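Subject: for your reference before the review

Hello V.,

The reviewers asked for a structural picture of the protein, and I figured it would be easier to keep everything in one thread rather than splitting it across files. Below is the amino acid sequence we used in the manuscript, unchanged from the supplementary table.
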Amino acid sequence: MTIRKGQKRGAKAPASVPHRPKLLAWLKDPRNAVAYVEAVLDEGDDSKGLMLALRNVAEAQGGTV
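And here is what came back from the structure prediction:
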Protein backbone atom coordinates (compact mmCIF):
# COMPACT_ATOMS: atom_id res chain seq x y z
CA MET A 1 0.00 0.00 0.00
CA THR A 2 1.36 3.38 -0.97
CA ILE A 3 0.98 6.19 1.52
CA ARG A 4 0.42 9.54 -0.16
CA LYS A 5 1.58 12.78 1.29
CA GLY A 6 -0.97 13.95 3.84
CA GLN A 7 -2.43 10.49 4.43
CA LYS A 8 -2.14 8.71 7.72
CA ARG A 9 -1.01 5.12 7.86
CA GLY A 10 -4.06 2.89 8.25
CA ALA A 11 -6.46 5.58 7.06
CA LYS A 12 -9.62 4.07 5.62
CA ALA A 13 -10.88 4.79 2.13
CA PRO A 14 -14.11 6.80 1.99
CA ALA A 15 -17.26 4.70 2.15
CA SER A 16 -18.87 3.93 -1.16
CA VAL A 17 -22.10 5.62 -2.11
CA PRO A 18 -25.04 3.25 -2.57
CA HIS A 19 -26.25 3.32 -6.17
CA ARG A 20 -29.55 1.49 -5.66
CA PRO A 21 -31.65 4.54 -4.67
CA LYS A 22 -30.46 6.39 -7.78
CA LEU A 23 -31.10 3.34 -9.96
CA LEU A 24 -34.65 2.96 -8.66
CA ALA A 25 -35.34 6.67 -9.16
CA TRP A 26 -34.02 6.41 -12.74
CA LEU A 27 -36.16 3.32 -13.42
CA LYS A 28 -39.36 5.18 -12.50
CA ASP A 29 -39.34 6.62 -16.01
CA PRO A 30 -40.87 3.93 -18.26
CA ARG A 31 -38.48 4.77 -21.11
CA ASN A 32 -35.50 4.15 -18.85
CA ALA A 33 -37.04 0.91 -17.58
CA VAL A 34 -37.47 -0.36 -21.15
CA ALA A 35 -33.89 0.57 -22.05
CA TYR A 36 -32.62 -1.15 -18.88
CA VAL A 37 -34.40 -4.43 -19.64
CA GLU A 38 -33.39 -4.27 -23.32
CA ALA A 39 -29.75 -3.83 -22.29
CA VAL A 40 -29.96 -6.94 -20.13
CA LEU A 41 -31.54 -8.89 -22.99
CA ASP A 42 -28.79 -7.71 -25.35
CA GLU A 43 -26.18 -9.12 -22.96
CA GLY A 44 -27.27 -12.66 -23.73
CA ASP A 45 -29.11 -15.54 -22.16
CA ASP A 46 -28.73 -14.82 -18.46
CA SER A 47 -31.96 -15.62 -16.67
CA LYS A 48 -30.60 -14.42 -13.32
CA GLY A 49 -29.70 -11.04 -14.79
CA LEU A 50 -33.10 -10.71 -16.41
CA MET A 51 -34.90 -11.62 -13.19
CA LEU A 52 -32.86 -9.03 -11.27
CA ALA A 53 -33.62 -6.38 -13.89
CA LEU A 54 -37.34 -7.14 -13.80
CA ARG A 55 -37.32 -7.11 -10.00
CA ASN A 56 -35.61 -3.71 -10.00
CA VAL A 57 -38.11 -2.30 -12.50
CA ALA A 58 -41.05 -3.69 -10.55
CA GLU A 59 -39.77 -2.16 -7.31
CA ALA A 60 -39.12 1.20 -8.97
CA GLN A 61 -42.63 1.23 -10.43
CA GLY A 62 -44.16 0.70 -6.98
CA GLY A 63 -44.51 -3.07 -6.96
CA THR A 64 -43.56 -5.17 -3.97
CA VAL A 65 -40.64 -7.53 -4.13
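For the response letter, the relevant points are probably these. The mean pLDDT is 86. DSSP finds three helices and no strands in the chain.

Happy to draft the paragraph if you're swamped.

O.
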